[in-house]
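Ticket #72: bound-state structure for zinc ion.
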Amino acid sequence: MAKDIAYLKPVPGNEGDYRSLGPISVCPCGSDLWNVKCKFDDDGELGIYFLDMRCTQCDSLAVAPMPDWKTQ
Ligand SMILES: [Zn+2]
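RESOLUTION: The complex was predicted; output attached.
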């Protein structure tokens, strides 16, 4: 059973700053779940999101992937 989002809290003390790696979808700690600030458009689709994000597991900072990030 999935955890309630209220209990998805990072383990303090292990956070890093991986923004220099560029866009990533998997954190160096192994987690692929992120806390991202976003805004939905009128159709309920993901509208905009901030590129800075934090890993839900270790609270590290990273850069969020963008639609064409693998072709650059
Ligand atoms: Zn992490």
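RESOLUTION NOTES: The pocket of zinc ion is lined by residues 27, 29, 31, 55, 57-58, 60 (CB under 6 Å).
TICKET STATUS: resolved
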